Amino acid sequence: QTEHATEASRSEVGRAVTADLASTAALFATTVPIAYLVSPAAAMWCWLALVPIKLIHRKRATARRHGRAS
């Protein structure tokens, strides 16, 4: 049973890492047209959206670790 729990936690970690990386990549991909159409500075300001995105991912991971669904 311990081995199964370890595999489940690895799977959870894998999903969390994938979601984190995917959201980061999506945000940066979104800022490329902003850099061309508006300005590079505006695109860089959009990167500040990573702060709440990362906090949300951390909150969800903590909730899952403690057995609370989110």
Show the helix and strand layout.
Blueprint: H1 2-37, H2 40-46, H3 50-65
Report on this model:
The protein is mostly helical. It has one domain (2-64). The chain is 84% helix and 0% strand. It has 3 helices and no strands. It has helices at residues 2-37, 40-46, 50-65. Helix 1 (2-37) runs antiparallel to helix 2 and helix 1 packs antiparallel against helix 3. It is elongated. The chain starts with a helix and ends in a 5-residue tail after the last helix. The model has no long low-confidence stretch (mean pLDDT 84).
Calculate the mean pLDDT score and round it.
84
Reported for the largest beta sheet, the result is: none
User: Total number of β-strand segments?
Assistant: 0
Principal-axes shape call:
elongated
Q: How many structurally independent domains?
A: 1
By DSSP (H or I, 4+ residues per run), the number of helices equals 3
Order of helices and strands, N to C?
Answer: HHH
Strand content: under 5%
* Rg, Cα atoms, Å: 16 Å
